[in-house]
Design a protein that fits this description.
The chain is α/β, with parallel strands linked by helices. The chain is built from 8 helices and 15 strands. α1 packs across α7 and α7 packs across α8. The chain is globular.
Length: about 325
Amino acid sequence: MITIAGEALMDVVTDVSGSVTALPGGAPFNVARTIARLGGDCRFLGRFSDDAFGRQLRSALEREGVAILVREATTAPTTLAIAQLDDTGSADYRFYLEGTAAAQLRPGDIPADVLAGSDGLALGGLGILIEPAASSLLGLVRQAPPEITVLLDPNCRPRAIKDPADYRATVAALLRRTDVAKVSADDLQLLAPGANAGTAARGLLELGPAAVLVTDGSTPVWIHTAAVERSMPVPEIDVVDTIGAGDAFVAGFLTWWSEHGLRRDDVVDIGALEEATAAGITVAAAACTVQGANLPDGFGWSSAGPEARLRVP
């Protein structure tokens, strides 16, 4: 069982032709839905609005079999991300956050036994910079049982961050109980201004994680641990857009990790990290070949004997 905590929102996507499409999104939402589509056992901890978008988001997760941990809807409107695509499929984001549903997760919404039965917890995204959700998520991480693998993907959004120093302090506090930190090269520029990616990743290791995974578009993914550094190749693909690519990576990594029964102590195993990272890369690449945070039809996860493997159409 994997627990995903954070925001659900609507991505309002404008492409180069000017066409506008509203798609379900939010980094934790995307991770939860993709894990479910890969056959993983997953539950989502976050708030939904009682408006039409909120009902659509809730229904999208329920259709995939994701368990919803906070059943009561909020009257606050659904959080919005405005995404402008360029001709390479990359998205530039602006956000409507204040007073919206994603911010409304409060400590009282989180059951005391919420992580019972979980072998993994993933969080990050906008939820860690809007209150009271950020404080609620920090409290959740601090109560994580010692055997659970905690993955943090800050998914930094500079335009949504009002106080960079305060934001870095929040990330640092979360990293103290993080086992795997997944960051992009852009994230590192915000978290460690002026440092190169390798130096910045090693700086994050010093704050608590046993492994830091650094993604950078179509270039190799780097695995950093206290003992080793490894690069993992990324396949060449025809990109439709990159929306949700990092989230798909997290989903692939965690699904593989959970399928293999791995726990927090296993993060020091470089072989396991390489295989889980390879799974993440495969899922992320597939997500980039379709519109929005989705996977191609026929793409999924299958198991045979003791090994789990990806099924690619």
